[in-house]
Amino acid sequence: MRLTWAQPEDLLAHEFVQSAVEGRDIDRTWARWSAAGGDPNPAVSGAGPHPAPPALRALARELLDELAALPTPDDPDEPDDWDAILALLPPAPDLRLSDKDRILGAWTGRAAGCLLGKPVEKIPREGIEEILRATGRWPLDQWFTAVGLPDDVAARWPWNRRSAATSLAENINGMPEDDDLNYAMLALTLLETHDRGFTTEDVAQLWLDNLPAGRVFTAERVAYRNLLDARPVPETATHHNPFREWIGALIRTDVFGWVSPGDVRAAARLAWTDARLSHTRNGVYGAMWAAALASAAMVCGTVEEVLDAAETVIPPRSRLARAVRFGREAARYDVPAALDRLHGEYGDLHWVHVLNNAAVIAYALAKGGGEFGPSVSIAVTAGWDTDSAAATVGGVVGALLGVDEMGTQWTKPLDGRIATSLPGGEQRIVDLAARTAALVSRRDT
């Protein structure tokens, strides 16, 4: 069985990268692994082509423990504790509450953006462009299609195997299941059950009660395993978890913003509580930023106002803050030149890392200028985590525009439905929006 994001030999290769970023001295451990014949190159898709033999796998476990025992230098610019983060932040913006009709646009936009990116998830930027040119759809402004795609291009850049059957123009029938939407639904259930005083342990219990283990990936898969191993929070985020600064927490937190319209600091606090189950440092800040984007999108009038407000929840000297600023500044360039700059700056990172994808989200929002199609299309053609980045972008722009202004080409194929393996099965988007609005009303009373 080729189990992704879990085999010790694959985790170790990724841990070398993460530990080095955190300033740990990995030289001795890296040398032992290389001398034993271990592959130090991280697997792009979560698992190497061949499982390690028993002795090498045992060594990988030992070396993961060895790395975990190394001290992690403190970084005053990137703390994990909420109070320490709060001490670094500028004053919260004073955003005025507007109507609640934006919630339906946010849910719909998140689903549509996610769906656009699903078939090309994992395909690099150059492959996405070649597919689009070969099918006469470059630059991207509509759903992907396999119709007319030459065999050699299809072989060179195969569609995402989980998504191609449900996310191409010729086969879309509602929004198919995706973790970007599963987590939003779970957040609703969390808030309905525990209100805004939920704990990270409540999040953990919710996962165990409702979330199939096969529907979690990267940091969430490791955290889930750590829960089953009875490890406490926040050790769930660090034990043998080299993905702790990847994008997983960022995709979980839009609902926390939608139920906190205009209160970006409160949205970020909820996101921090959720994210620390599986992430640290910039992985957590990404979740806080995404929640703040969603919060600001409930009340602001422009994308720039949303971006300005959301930046106030990020430690200003953190790597995430730099990535967001880099993405926004790239909006001065046309799309090809800007994407060259983004890939030049962050192309060494894994395609599921938080920094490169946050830069893309910031760029797509800034360059898209509040138009739905251009914004989500930029997020997808950038490559990296195409469905997640476009989902976040789509949620923001969908909220600003509302469903009627998004365009029927993006909304009609969804048919107002989202598939899920969570308890209760398929959900109607209007029902999810109504439940979200009810949580806002509960907060206001």
TrEMBL record:
Keyword Membrane on entry: no
Obligatory cofactor(s): Mg(2+)
Cofactor note: Binds 2 magnesium ions per subunit.
UniProt keyword annotations, A-Z: Hydrolase, Magnesium, Metal-binding
Gene3D superfamilies per UniProt: ADP-ribosylation/Crystallin J1 (1.10.4080.10)
One GO molecular-function entry: metal ion binding
SUPFAM superfamilies associated with the record: ADP-ribosylglycohydrolase (SSF101478)
InterPro entries: ADP-ribosylglycohydrolase, Ribosyl_crysJ1, Ribosyl_crysJ1_sf
Binding site for Mg(2+): 385, 387-388
Pfam families: ADP_ribosyl_GH
Protein name, entry field: ADP-ribosylglycohydrolase
Organism classification: Bacteria, Bacillati, Actinomycetota, Actinomycetes, Pseudonocardiales
